[in-house]
Structures are given as C-alpha cells and as structure tokens.
Amino acid sequence: MTATKTDLPIVQCIARARIPTTQGPDIFLHLYANNRDNKEHLAIVFGEDIRSRSLFKRRPGETQNDRMIRGAYVGKLHPGRTVADTDDRLGLTLHFDEKTGDLLYESKTTWDPKNNTLVRIHSECYTGENAWSARCDCGEQFDRAGRLIACEHEKETGIIGGNGHGVIVYLRQEGRGIGLGEKLKAYNLQDLGADTVQANIMLKHPVDARDFSIGKAIIMDLGISNVRLLTNNPDKIVQVEYEPYIRCVERVPMVPIHWTNENAGIKSKEIEGYLRTKIERMGHLLQEPIKLHSTTTTTSTTTTTE
Ligand SMILES: Nc1nc2c(ncn2[C@@H]2O[C@H](COP(=O)(O)OP(=O)(O)OP(=O)(O)O)[C@@H](O)[C@H]2O)c(=O)[nH]1
Ligand SMILES: [Zn+2]
User: Which parts of the chain span the membrane according to its record (predicted)?
Assistant: First the structure.
C-alpha cells in the first residue's frame, strides 16, 4: 500500500542558521516544530543547497529581511545584504510558484531529490554526547556521521562519504523515547544486572518507545528521497522507507571504532553488554569481530597472551 503524505506528522522549519564548525565545513542547523509533540527536533544539514521546503516557502506579508532573519536565504549572508532570494556575489537566485509561494526546484540552487543522500537519523543521548559516557556508542556515532557526510570516502573503511552533502536528523528521543530520567533508572537496573532491554521492561516501558515518523517528515521537507541510511538498526530502515516519497537505497553500517582499531573508540564492560544486547535481542545488523586465531598460546604451566 503506497503511503499518502497525509499520514505523516506536519513539520515546520522555524529557523536555519549557518554554523562554522571546529571540524572544517559549515553546517546549517535547522530547528523544527511539529504537530505531534512539543519537542524541538533538529536537522544538521551539510550543504547550503539542501533546502527546507517549509522554511523557504513564501509567507504572506513578510519582507526579504524577515526571510534572511529566519535563514531562508540563498548563498551567504554578509553585512549590507538586503535581498534573501538573490545572492548577487554568487550569482544565485531562487524562484517560487507565484500562486502557492513554494520554492521551485532548480539544479543551480537546490540539491536534487534524486541524488543518493547520506542520512543519519540520530536519537538524542545526553550521556553519550555530553557526559563522556562509556555505556553506549551514541556520541561516537554522532561524530562519525558528521565526518562521513563531510568526506569523499572514509579511509579506514573505504565507505563512500557524502562529499559535503547530507543530513543528521537529530530527534529529541532520549533513552529510546523514555526520557533521561527513566534512562538513568535503567542504568541503575543495568548495574544491578539487567540488560538494556530488561531494564526498560522492568520500568514498564516498551523496549523501544521511539517513532521515526517525524524524522521521515523532516527528510521529505528537506527535499531528499533517495537515502543512504547510516544505521545498524533494522527498525529504522523499515520505518524510514516511505514509497514513493523516501527510498532507502543503501544501509551504511556503523561499526564501533574499537572493533576495528584496538587503540581507539570506547572500551568498557558496559558498552560490550550494550552492543551485545543490540545484536542478540534487538536484531541490530552488527557482526561482532570473530577472533579466528586466538592470540593466547598455552604452555605446559602457564597461559600467556601475546
Ligand atoms: N532506554 C535506554 N536507552 C538507551 C540506553 N543506552 C542508549 N540509549 C538510547 O538509545 C538511543 C540510541 O539511539 P541511536 O543512536 O539512534 O541508535 P540506535 O537506534 O540504537 O541504532 P543505530 O542507528 O544503529 O545507532 C538513544 O536515545 C539513547 O539515549 C539504555 O541503556 N536504555
Ligand atoms: Zn547513548
């Protein structure tokens, strides 16, 4: 059954701003409102020409200055610029449907929806992203997604990057949707021996309380239809597919750094359990490295590991 756009939440990009990053490229941070929850979901967009249709749509009575202030401009802002829809210095002009005010697609100014675009749908994880947590790999995944979108291809794995175009849809679904407070309680239950699945159930929550439909609506709003999805989570792939509007043309794996490089990434008992539960109990598409030749040699009296 093909989807109809009406069964998706309605999202509205409220503001977009250029963020010069410490990693090199500028990103364009988009803040969204929606008609499902009162959270500020985000899109971290790499590429000035990936355009939010809801942000760029013309609004009755607004001025060009209003458009520039909310971030609905083409090219680059500079002191003294007065027109949002034209960047004289770069020779770029946006055009709109006179009746509806919708942005018209033109290859010179707007990313082609038919391009295969590298996308990560990332759920907020305060502990992994801001508190140096070694309980999960969310922070590592977030950083790697940004690096992969910015680069042509990843040296270590040969995976083709986004070459400066792509999106991290950042959903405020902390704790797989149960919130930070309940996640902290889940951590205490895990320290008492439960795994991440059991802990959620013991707290009377679903194993995964997330819904990716807002993420889907944001991807569509950004004019992206062919997605190279950065994930190991099969549920995300199923939930993002949305024929004929969104097609997952490729699943790009997110292998924990420590699994391919002994001296890097996150190494802890907790994260081993976290990843093992994802594989064994949540069906994540991750293959634990199989040690074919043990490096442990046993001699008559002692066992030494080189
Ligand atoms: N309830 C609960 N949530 C956790 C735990 N550890 C991490 N999380 C949450 O799990 C979510 C991880 O989401 P993502 O980083 O999008 O990853 P994923 O859905 O597991 O799958 P990938 O796309 O393959 O990374 C975040 O919301 C974290 O806050 C835990 O022990 N319990
Ligand atoms: Zn996490």
Answer: none
Asked whether the predicted pLDDT for residue 302 surpasses 50, the reply is no
| Residue 87 contacts residue 256 (beta carbons within 8 Å) | no
Go through 224-248 and write b for each residue having 16 or more CB atoms within 10 A of its CB, e for each that does not. bbbbbbbbbbeebbebbebeebbeb
Residue ranges lining ligand 1, Cβ < 6 Å: 122-125, 136, 138, 141, 173-176, 178, 183, 186, 196, 200, 231-233, 236, 254, 284
ipTM of model: 0.97
Within 10 angstroms of residue 257's Cβ, the number of other Cβ atoms is 18
pLDDT in tens, 154-169: 888 889 999 999 999 9
Calpha distance 155→233 (Å, rounded): 24
> Where does the chain have alpha helices with state H?
53-56, 64-70, 126-130, 138-150, 180-191, 196-202, 213-221, 234-240, 257-260, 269-282
Compute the residue count for the chain. Answer: 306
Most informative mutation of 183, 192, 198, 286 for ligand 1 (most atoms within 8 A of CB): 183
Tens-place pLDDT, residues 18-35: 999 998 899 999 999 999
Assign 33 to helix, strand or coil. Answer: strand
Asked if residue 128 has pLDDT above 50, the reply is yes
